[in-house]
Amino acid sequence: GTATSGVGDGFTFDRGPNGFLTSNPSTWQLAHDLGIGQALVEAAPEAKRRYLLLDRGLEALPHAPPSLLGTPLLSARGKLRAAREPFVPTGTADDESVFAFFERRFGSEVATTFAAPMVMGITSGDARATSVRSVFPTLVRAEQEFGSVIKGMMALRKQRAPDAPSGRLTSLRGGMGVLTSALASALGARVQLGHCVESLADAFAAAVQRRGGTLA
User: Nearest-CA neighbor of 31 among 44, 42, 16?
Assistant: First the structure.
């Protein structure tokens, strides 16, 4: 699996997802249900600054839409295309990939430079094959309700209740692999590790047989 953790040179590192946001409390609750709530730890304030590792070294990522205009990670043409986002028509598809969403809203340069690395860092997945509704539901809501991601995010921020979850990046001492290991232990024989599923039909049949049932 990709949600595993390790230790190297005295540092804990994640091979896949490196945390979750507390604004979506399901993972936070899962950790408590598994009895590892005491291992939860919020990211340090310095973690708000994110970087891309390029051939020339580390480059800071824009922390807000206006900072897109000053980043050296985009060309002048890419910045102009991103600035047009508030005027892009609302999409009509039920769902689309993260890459397709960012490309449609902000242009191909933003999708390639930012969306692809973000998905890799969050899920260890492919932005072209990852559902935007699953990974960034707030961005989809912003577009649907306000016709623009930039306008929508600004409006939603103003609407947030004072006692609403802060959306802080949170992980566990020992890495996110602690969560998946605890979940595997809790499920016991109901989950098989180290096996490749070739089809859902085969996986379903195997599950039924393990429970002593038969397929009609």
Answer: 42
